[in-house]
Protein backbone atom coordinates (compact mmCIF):
# COMPACT_ATOMS: atom_id res chain seq x y z
CA UNK A 1 0.00 0.00 0.00
CA UNK A 2 1.48 3.33 -1.03
CA UNK A 3 -1.14 5.85 0.11
CA UNK A 4 -0.12 8.75 2.31
CA UNK A 5 -3.48 8.86 4.04
CA UNK A 6 -2.78 6.79 7.16
CA UNK A 7 -4.55 8.48 10.05
CA UNK A 8 -5.13 7.45 13.67
CA UNK A 9 -8.24 8.60 15.51
CA UNK A 10 -7.50 8.74 19.24
CA UNK A 11 -10.62 8.84 21.39
CA UNK A 12 -9.94 10.27 24.83
CA UNK A 13 -7.76 13.27 25.59
CA UNK A 14 -6.52 12.34 29.06
CA UNK A 15 -2.88 11.60 29.96
CA UNK A 16 -2.88 8.33 28.01
CA UNK A 17 -4.54 9.90 24.96
CA UNK A 18 -2.05 12.78 24.94
CA UNK A 19 0.82 10.31 25.27
CA UNK A 20 -0.60 8.65 22.15
CA UNK A 21 -0.59 12.06 20.46
CA UNK A 22 3.11 12.41 21.30
CA UNK A 23 3.84 8.93 19.96
CA UNK A 24 2.10 9.65 16.64
CA UNK A 25 3.60 13.12 16.32
CA UNK A 26 7.12 11.72 16.85
CA UNK A 27 6.43 9.06 14.21
CA UNK A 28 5.27 11.75 11.72
CA UNK A 29 1.87 10.05 11.43
CA UNK A 30 -1.38 11.96 11.02
CA UNK A 31 -3.87 11.81 13.87
CA UNK A 32 -6.72 13.54 15.65
CA UNK A 33 -7.63 13.35 19.34
CA UNK A 34 -11.34 13.53 20.22
CA UNK A 35 -12.11 14.53 23.82
CA UNK A 36 -15.67 14.71 25.17
CA UNK A 37 -14.86 17.34 27.83
CA UNK A 38 -15.10 21.08 27.02
CA UNK A 39 -11.34 21.59 27.39
CA UNK A 40 -8.28 19.43 26.89
CA UNK A 41 -6.69 20.79 30.08
CA UNK A 42 -9.16 21.03 32.96
CA UNK A 43 -8.62 21.69 36.65
CA UNK A 44 -10.41 18.50 37.62
CA UNK A 45 -9.65 15.07 39.01
CA UNK A 46 -7.41 13.63 41.66
CA UNK A 47 -3.62 13.51 41.81
CA UNK A 48 -1.60 10.91 39.93
CA UNK A 49 1.53 9.02 40.90
CA UNK A 50 4.18 8.69 38.20
CA UNK A 51 6.33 5.59 38.72
CA UNK A 52 9.76 5.11 37.11
CA UNK A 53 8.21 3.18 34.18
CA UNK A 54 6.03 6.18 33.31
CA UNK A 55 8.58 8.85 34.19
CA UNK A 56 11.15 7.23 31.92
CA UNK A 57 8.83 7.50 28.92
CA UNK A 58 8.02 11.12 29.70
CA UNK A 59 11.73 11.79 30.12
CA UNK A 60 12.36 10.28 26.68
CA UNK A 61 9.82 12.76 25.30
CA UNK A 62 11.77 15.64 26.86
CA UNK A 63 9.14 16.38 29.53
CA UNK A 64 11.01 15.42 32.71
CA UNK A 65 12.23 18.94 33.70
CA UNK A 66 8.66 20.24 33.57
CA UNK A 67 7.39 17.18 35.42
CA UNK A 68 9.96 17.62 38.19
CA UNK A 69 9.09 21.31 38.56
CA UNK A 70 5.36 20.55 38.94
CA UNK A 71 5.53 17.42 41.12
CA UNK A 72 6.82 16.14 44.45
CA UNK A 73 9.06 13.08 44.92
CA UNK A 74 7.88 10.34 47.27
CA UNK A 75 10.35 8.31 49.30
CA UNK A 76 8.10 6.65 51.86
CA UNK A 77 4.56 6.26 53.17
CA UNK A 78 3.76 6.79 56.82
CA UNK A 79 1.14 4.24 57.92
CA UNK A 80 -1.38 4.47 60.75
CA UNK A 81 -4.51 2.53 61.68
CA UNK A 82 -8.03 3.85 62.21
CA UNK A 83 -7.12 4.83 65.78
CA UNK A 84 -4.10 6.82 64.62
CA UNK A 85 -1.62 4.25 65.90
CA UNK A 86 1.65 3.84 64.02
CA UNK A 87 1.86 0.82 61.68
CA UNK A 88 5.41 1.58 60.57
CA UNK A 89 6.61 3.40 57.47
CA UNK A 90 6.90 1.57 54.19
CA UNK A 91 9.88 2.33 51.95
CA UNK A 92 8.69 0.86 48.64
CA UNK A 93 9.46 4.13 46.88
CA UNK A 94 12.96 4.40 48.34
CA UNK A 95 13.70 1.01 46.81
CA UNK A 96 12.26 2.19 43.49
CA UNK A 97 14.89 4.93 43.57
CA UNK A 98 17.67 2.45 44.40
CA UNK A 99 16.58 -0.10 41.82
CA UNK A 100 15.45 2.12 38.93
CA UNK A 101 16.99 5.54 39.46
CA UNK A 102 13.94 7.65 40.35
CA UNK A 103 11.50 8.23 43.16
CA UNK A 104 7.85 8.11 42.16
CA UNK A 105 6.42 11.60 41.87
CA UNK A 106 2.97 12.97 42.75
CA UNK A 107 1.46 15.40 40.28
CA UNK A 108 -1.99 16.87 39.79
CA UNK A 109 -3.88 15.64 36.75
CA UNK A 110 -4.18 19.26 35.60
CA UNK A 111 -0.43 19.86 35.72
CA UNK A 112 0.38 16.62 33.93
CA UNK A 113 -2.16 17.42 31.23
CA UNK A 114 -0.73 20.93 30.80
CA UNK A 115 2.78 19.56 30.42
CA UNK A 116 1.71 16.91 27.90
CA UNK A 117 -0.24 19.53 25.95
CA UNK A 118 2.50 22.16 25.94
CA UNK A 119 5.11 19.56 25.00
CA UNK A 120 3.44 18.95 21.64
CA UNK A 121 4.35 21.10 18.62
CA UNK A 122 1.73 23.66 17.59
CA UNK A 123 0.57 21.61 14.60
CA UNK A 124 -0.06 18.62 16.89
CA UNK A 125 -1.87 20.76 19.47
CA UNK A 126 -4.26 21.82 16.72
CA UNK A 127 -5.31 18.17 16.36
CA UNK A 128 -6.59 17.98 19.96
CA UNK A 129 -10.33 18.57 19.71
CA UNK A 130 -12.53 19.07 22.81
CA UNK A 131 -16.35 18.81 22.92
CA UNK A 132 -16.24 15.69 20.76
CA UNK A 133 -18.41 13.02 22.36
CA UNK A 134 -18.22 9.87 20.25
CA UNK A 135 -21.60 8.24 19.59
CA UNK A 136 -20.91 5.75 16.80
CA UNK A 137 -18.05 3.86 15.17
CA UNK A 138 -18.16 2.16 11.79
CA UNK A 139 -15.34 -0.07 10.58
CA UNK A 140 -14.80 -1.43 7.07
CA UNK A 141 -11.98 -3.03 5.11
CA UNK A 142 -11.04 0.46 3.89
CA UNK A 143 -11.01 2.32 7.20
CA UNK A 144 -12.97 3.60 10.17
CA UNK A 145 -15.42 6.45 10.68
CA UNK A 146 -16.29 8.07 14.00
CA UNK A 147 -19.46 10.10 14.48
CA UNK A 148 -19.76 12.61 17.33
CA UNK A 149 -22.78 13.98 19.17
CA UNK A 150 -22.41 17.34 17.43
CA UNK A 151 -22.84 15.66 14.03
CA UNK A 152 -19.20 15.85 13.02
CA UNK A 153 -17.49 12.79 11.52
CA UNK A 154 -13.85 11.74 11.30
CA UNK A 155 -12.41 9.10 9.00
CA UNK A 156 -9.13 7.30 9.55
CA UNK A 157 -7.20 4.06 9.34
CA UNK A 158 -7.36 2.96 12.99
CA UNK A 159 -9.07 3.99 16.22
CA UNK A 160 -7.18 4.08 19.52
CA UNK A 161 -9.56 3.94 22.48
CA UNK A 162 -7.97 5.88 25.33
CA UNK A 163 -11.27 6.90 26.88
CA UNK A 164 -11.07 5.30 30.29
CA UNK A 165 -12.87 2.72 32.36
CA UNK A 166 -16.28 3.65 30.94
CA UNK A 167 -14.97 3.56 27.40
CA UNK A 168 -17.39 4.33 24.57
CA UNK A 169 -14.85 2.86 22.16
CA UNK A 170 -14.84 -0.42 24.08
CA UNK A 171 -18.62 -0.55 23.95
CA UNK A 172 -18.64 0.25 20.23
CA UNK A 173 -15.90 -2.31 19.60
CA UNK A 174 -18.11 -4.97 21.19
CA UNK A 175 -21.02 -3.90 18.99
CA UNK A 176 -18.87 -4.20 15.87
CA UNK A 177 -17.73 -7.68 16.98
CA UNK A 178 -21.29 -8.79 17.67
CA UNK A 179 -22.42 -7.61 14.24
CA UNK A 180 -19.78 -9.71 12.48
CA UNK A 181 -20.89 -13.02 10.93
CA UNK A 182 -20.54 -15.82 13.48
CA UNK A 183 -21.73 -19.36 14.10
CA UNK A 184 -22.34 -18.60 17.78
CA UNK A 185 -24.69 -16.15 19.50
CA UNK A 186 -21.74 -14.31 21.06
CA UNK A 187 -18.59 -14.29 18.89
CA UNK A 188 -15.41 -15.38 20.65
CA UNK A 189 -13.87 -12.02 19.75
CA UNK A 190 -16.48 -10.03 21.71
CA UNK A 191 -15.72 -8.94 25.28
CA UNK A 192 -18.23 -9.15 28.10
CA UNK A 193 -20.68 -6.28 28.24
CA UNK A 194 -19.59 -5.49 31.81
CA UNK A 195 -15.99 -6.70 31.98
CA UNK A 196 -14.89 -5.00 35.21
CA UNK A 197 -15.80 -5.96 38.78
CA UNK A 198 -16.13 -3.31 41.49
CA UNK A 199 -15.29 -4.32 45.06
CA UNK A 200 -14.42 -0.81 46.32
CA UNK A 201 -15.83 2.66 45.92
CA UNK A 202 -13.75 5.79 46.41
CA UNK A 203 -14.10 9.37 47.51
CA UNK A 204 -11.33 11.82 46.66
CA UNK A 205 -10.96 15.21 48.33
CA UNK A 206 -8.69 18.11 47.39
CA UNK A 207 -8.06 20.70 50.13
CA UNK A 208 -5.43 23.31 51.09
CA UNK A 209 -2.15 22.06 52.54
CA UNK A 210 -2.16 23.38 56.11
CA UNK A 211 -0.60 22.26 59.38
CA UNK A 212 -0.25 19.54 60.60
CA UNK A 213 0.15 18.44 56.97
CA UNK A 214 3.38 19.54 55.30
CA UNK A 215 4.25 19.63 51.59
CA UNK A 216 5.66 16.29 50.53
CA UNK A 217 3.82 14.26 53.18
CA UNK A 218 2.53 10.87 52.06
CA UNK A 219 0.47 8.86 54.49
CA UNK A 220 -1.95 5.94 54.60
CA UNK A 221 -4.64 5.06 57.12
CA UNK A 222 -5.47 1.35 57.24
CA UNK A 223 -8.20 -0.69 58.90
CA UNK A 224 -11.29 -2.80 58.43
CA UNK A 225 -13.24 -2.00 55.24
CA UNK A 226 -11.67 1.42 54.60
CA UNK A 227 -8.25 2.85 53.78
CA UNK A 228 -7.03 6.24 52.62
CA UNK A 229 -3.97 7.68 50.94
CA UNK A 230 -2.75 11.26 51.42
CA UNK A 231 -0.52 13.10 48.96
CA UNK A 232 0.47 16.62 50.05
CA UNK A 233 1.61 19.22 47.54
CA UNK A 234 2.96 22.72 48.08
CA UNK A 235 -0.45 24.39 48.00
CA UNK A 236 -3.04 21.62 47.95
CA UNK A 237 -3.32 18.06 49.20
CA UNK A 238 -5.44 15.16 47.98
CA UNK A 239 -6.78 12.15 49.84
CA UNK A 240 -8.25 9.08 48.19
CA UNK A 241 -10.51 7.04 50.49
CA UNK A 242 -11.27 3.47 49.41
CA UNK A 243 -14.28 1.71 50.96
CA UNK A 244 -15.06 -1.97 50.59
CA UNK A 245 -18.58 -2.32 49.21
CA UNK A 246 -21.25 -4.48 50.79
CA UNK A 247 -21.30 -6.66 47.68
CA UNK A 248 -19.14 -6.61 44.53
CA UNK A 249 -20.92 -5.43 41.40
CA UNK A 250 -20.39 -5.08 37.68
CA UNK A 251 -22.85 -2.20 37.42
CA UNK A 252 -21.75 1.40 37.20
CA UNK A 253 -22.81 4.13 39.62
CA UNK A 254 -23.24 7.89 39.64
CA UNK A 255 -22.85 9.40 43.08
CA UNK A 256 -24.60 12.50 44.42
CA UNK A 257 -23.86 15.01 47.17
CA UNK A 258 -26.18 12.94 49.38
CA UNK A 259 -23.94 9.93 48.76
CA UNK A 260 -20.90 12.02 49.70
CA UNK A 261 -22.60 13.14 52.92
CA UNK A 262 -23.40 9.53 53.82
CA UNK A 263 -19.80 8.51 53.07
CA UNK A 264 -18.49 11.24 55.39
CA UNK A 265 -20.97 10.13 58.05
CA UNK A 266 -19.47 6.63 57.91
CA UNK A 267 -15.79 7.49 57.70
CA UNK A 268 -15.33 11.17 58.55
CA UNK A 269 -13.86 10.34 61.95
CA UNK A 270 -10.79 8.60 60.49
CA UNK A 271 -7.47 10.44 60.77
CA UNK A 272 -5.81 11.67 57.58
CA UNK A 273 -2.43 11.87 59.27
CA UNK A 274 -1.06 10.90 62.67
CA UNK A 275 -2.07 13.37 65.37
CA UNK A 276 -3.96 15.60 62.98
CA UNK A 277 -6.76 16.28 60.58
CA UNK A 278 -9.78 14.00 60.08
CA UNK A 279 -11.49 13.12 56.81
CA UNK A 280 -14.48 15.24 57.90
CA UNK A 281 -12.25 18.30 58.36
CA UNK A 282 -10.62 17.79 54.95
CA UNK A 283 -14.08 17.51 53.37
CA UNK A 284 -15.25 20.68 55.12
CA UNK A 285 -12.22 22.58 53.74
CA UNK A 286 -12.44 20.97 50.28
CA UNK A 287 -11.86 22.80 47.04
CA UNK A 288 -12.94 19.74 45.03
CA UNK A 289 -14.34 16.31 45.81
CA UNK A 290 -15.98 13.39 44.06
CA UNK A 291 -16.97 9.75 44.33
CA UNK A 292 -16.38 6.91 41.86
CA UNK A 293 -16.39 3.14 41.72
CA UNK A 294 -12.98 1.44 41.59
CA UNK A 295 -13.37 -1.10 38.82
CA UNK A 296 -10.90 -3.95 38.43
CA UNK A 297 -10.21 -6.32 35.58
CA UNK A 298 -8.36 -7.07 32.34
CA UNK A 299 -10.21 -7.51 29.05
CA UNK A 300 -9.80 -10.74 27.08
CA UNK A 301 -9.62 -8.82 23.80
CA UNK A 302 -7.89 -5.45 23.49
CA UNK A 303 -8.67 -5.00 19.81
CA UNK A 304 -11.11 -5.93 17.12
CA UNK A 305 -10.80 -5.10 13.46
CA UNK A 306 -9.29 -1.58 13.21
CA UNK A 307 -10.08 -0.68 16.83
CA UNK A 308 -7.56 -1.02 19.67
CA UNK A 309 -7.78 -0.13 23.37
CA UNK A 310 -5.15 1.29 25.73
CA UNK A 311 -5.06 2.16 29.42
CA UNK A 312 -8.19 1.95 31.55
CA UNK A 313 -10.29 1.08 28.51
CA UNK A 314 -8.47 -2.28 28.40
CA UNK A 315 -7.60 -2.85 32.05
CA UNK A 316 -8.47 -1.20 35.35
CA UNK A 317 -6.59 -1.22 38.67
CA UNK A 318 -7.43 0.03 42.13
CA UNK A 319 -5.28 3.14 42.86
CA UNK A 320 -3.37 1.68 45.83
CA UNK A 321 -0.11 1.12 43.93
CA UNK A 322 -0.42 4.16 41.67
CA UNK A 323 0.13 1.91 38.65
CA UNK A 324 -2.95 2.62 36.52
CA UNK A 325 -1.90 5.73 34.58
CA UNK A 326 1.67 4.43 34.25
CA UNK A 327 0.51 1.22 32.63
CA UNK A 328 -1.63 3.23 30.23
CA UNK A 329 1.44 5.23 29.21
CA UNK A 330 3.42 2.01 28.70
CA UNK A 331 0.52 0.56 26.67
CA UNK A 332 0.93 3.44 24.24
CA UNK A 333 4.66 2.74 24.02
CA UNK A 334 4.15 -0.97 23.34
CA UNK A 335 1.45 -0.32 20.73
CA UNK A 336 3.52 2.39 19.03
CA UNK A 337 6.55 0.07 18.86
CA UNK A 338 4.53 -2.73 17.24
CA UNK A 339 3.12 -0.30 14.67
CA UNK A 340 6.66 1.02 14.09
CA UNK A 341 7.82 -2.52 13.29
CA UNK A 342 4.93 -2.95 10.84
CA UNK A 343 5.62 0.38 9.14
CA UNK A 344 9.35 -0.24 8.90
CA UNK A 345 8.85 -3.70 7.37
CA UNK A 346 6.51 -2.54 4.61
CA UNK A 347 8.58 0.54 3.79
CA UNK A 348 11.79 -1.47 3.55
CA UNK A 349 10.06 -4.11 1.42
CA UNK A 350 8.55 -1.57 -0.97
CA UNK A 351 11.36 0.98 -0.85
CA UNK A 352 8.74 3.66 -0.23
CA UNK A 353 8.86 5.86 2.86
CA UNK A 354 5.21 6.84 2.37
CA UNK A 355 3.86 3.27 2.42
CA UNK A 356 1.92 1.96 5.39
CA UNK A 357 0.84 -1.53 6.45
CA UNK A 358 -2.29 -3.16 5.11
CA UNK A 359 -5.14 -4.19 7.39
CA UNK A 360 -3.78 -7.66 8.13
CA UNK A 361 -0.42 -6.29 9.24
CA UNK A 362 -2.12 -3.66 11.41
CA UNK A 363 -4.22 -6.35 13.07
CA UNK A 364 -1.06 -8.38 13.60
CA UNK A 365 0.54 -5.39 15.34
CA UNK A 366 -2.52 -5.06 17.58
CA UNK A 367 -2.27 -8.73 18.56
CA UNK A 368 1.45 -8.47 19.30
CA UNK A 369 0.81 -5.41 21.46
CA UNK A 370 -1.67 -7.32 23.62
CA UNK A 371 0.67 -10.29 23.93
CA UNK A 372 3.53 -8.03 25.03
CA UNK A 373 1.42 -6.35 27.71
CA UNK A 374 -1.18 -8.87 28.89
CA UNK A 375 0.73 -10.81 31.58
CA UNK A 376 2.43 -7.72 33.00
CA UNK A 377 -0.84 -5.83 33.22
CA UNK A 378 -2.64 -8.79 34.80
CA UNK A 379 0.08 -9.11 37.44
CA UNK A 380 -0.12 -5.37 38.09
CA UNK A 381 -3.88 -5.47 38.48
CA UNK A 382 -3.63 -8.38 40.92
CA UNK A 383 -0.89 -6.60 42.87
CA UNK A 384 -3.00 -3.46 43.23
CA UNK A 385 -5.95 -5.57 44.37
CA UNK A 386 -3.83 -7.30 47.01
CA UNK A 387 -2.54 -3.93 48.24
CA UNK A 388 -6.08 -2.59 48.65
CA UNK A 389 -7.15 -5.82 50.33
CA UNK A 390 -4.26 -5.59 52.79
CA UNK A 391 -4.96 -1.94 53.59
CA UNK A 392 -8.68 -2.63 54.21
CA UNK A 393 -7.93 -5.75 56.27
CA UNK A 394 -10.26 -7.78 54.09
CA UNK A 395 -9.41 -10.98 55.98
CA UNK A 396 -7.10 -12.24 58.72
CA UNK A 397 -4.25 -12.92 56.30
CA UNK A 398 -4.36 -9.43 54.82
CA UNK A 399 -4.49 -7.89 58.30
CA UNK A 400 -1.48 -9.94 59.40
CA UNK A 401 0.52 -9.02 56.30
CA UNK A 402 -0.32 -5.34 56.71
CA UNK A 403 0.55 -5.16 60.39
CA UNK A 404 3.49 -7.54 60.63
CA UNK A 405 5.04 -8.00 57.17
CA UNK A 406 4.84 -4.60 55.50
CA UNK A 407 6.26 -2.95 58.61
CA UNK A 408 9.52 -4.91 58.27
CA UNK A 409 11.79 -3.07 55.86
CA UNK A 410 13.98 -6.10 55.18
CA UNK A 411 10.93 -7.95 53.83
CA UNK A 412 9.72 -4.94 51.87
CA UNK A 413 13.17 -4.62 50.29
CA UNK A 414 13.14 -8.34 49.46
CA UNK A 415 9.81 -8.04 47.65
CA UNK A 416 10.88 -4.81 45.89
CA UNK A 417 14.04 -6.50 44.60
CA UNK A 418 12.02 -9.53 43.55
CA UNK A 419 9.72 -7.43 41.36
CA UNK A 420 12.46 -5.10 40.06
CA UNK A 421 13.50 -7.32 37.10
CA UNK A 422 9.92 -7.22 35.80
CA UNK A 423 9.78 -3.42 36.06
CA UNK A 424 13.16 -3.20 34.32
CA UNK A 425 11.62 -4.88 31.25
CA UNK A 426 9.24 -1.97 30.73
CA UNK A 427 9.69 -0.59 27.19
CA UNK A 428 10.45 2.84 25.79
CA UNK A 429 9.82 4.18 22.29
CA UNK A 430 12.14 2.46 19.82
CA UNK A 431 12.08 5.39 17.40
CA UNK A 432 12.54 8.34 19.78
CA UNK A 433 16.05 9.43 20.71
CA UNK A 434 16.89 10.61 24.20
CA UNK A 435 19.15 10.27 27.19
CA UNK A 436 18.93 7.72 29.98
CA UNK A 437 18.16 9.86 33.03
CA UNK A 438 17.21 7.00 35.37
CA UNK A 439 19.91 4.54 36.33
CA UNK A 440 19.62 2.12 39.25
CA UNK A 441 20.80 -1.28 40.41
CA UNK A 442 18.67 -3.07 37.81
CA UNK A 443 19.57 -2.08 34.22
CA UNK A 444 16.68 -1.41 31.87
CA UNK A 445 16.22 -4.24 29.39
CA UNK A 446 15.57 -1.78 26.55
CA UNK A 447 17.99 1.15 26.42
CA UNK A 448 16.76 4.49 25.13
CA UNK A 449 17.88 4.97 21.53
CA UNK A 450 20.71 7.49 21.31
CA UNK A 451 21.26 7.32 25.06
CA UNK A 452 24.56 8.73 26.27
CA UNK A 453 24.72 6.23 29.14
Automatic annotation (TrEMBL):
A Pfam family matched in the record: FAD_binding_3
FAD-binding domain ranges (all copies): 7-344
GO molecular function: FAD binding; monooxygenase activity
Gene3D superfamilies named in the record: FAD/NAD(P)-binding domain
Keywords attached to this entry: FAD, Flavoprotein, Oxidoreductase
Superkingdom to which the source organism belongs: Eukaryota
Cofactor: FAD
InterPro entries: FAD-bd, FAD/NAD-bd_sf, FAD_mOase_fung
Family statement: Belongs to the paxM FAD-dependent monooxygenase family.
Name of this protein: FAD-binding domain-containing protein
Native species: Cercophora newfieldiana
Amino acid sequence: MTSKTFKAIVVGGGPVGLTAAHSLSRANLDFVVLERRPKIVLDAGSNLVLLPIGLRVLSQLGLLPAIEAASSPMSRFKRIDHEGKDLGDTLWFTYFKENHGAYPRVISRHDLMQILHDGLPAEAQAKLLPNKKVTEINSTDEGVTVTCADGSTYTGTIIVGADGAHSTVRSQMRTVALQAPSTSSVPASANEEKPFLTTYRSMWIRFPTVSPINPGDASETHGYDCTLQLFAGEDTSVIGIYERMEKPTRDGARYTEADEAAFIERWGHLPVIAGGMSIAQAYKDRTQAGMVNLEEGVLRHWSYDRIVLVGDAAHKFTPSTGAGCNNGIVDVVALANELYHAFRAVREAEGDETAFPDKDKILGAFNEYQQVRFDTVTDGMNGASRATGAATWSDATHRFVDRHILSKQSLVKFFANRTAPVMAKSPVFEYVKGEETMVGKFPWAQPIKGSLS
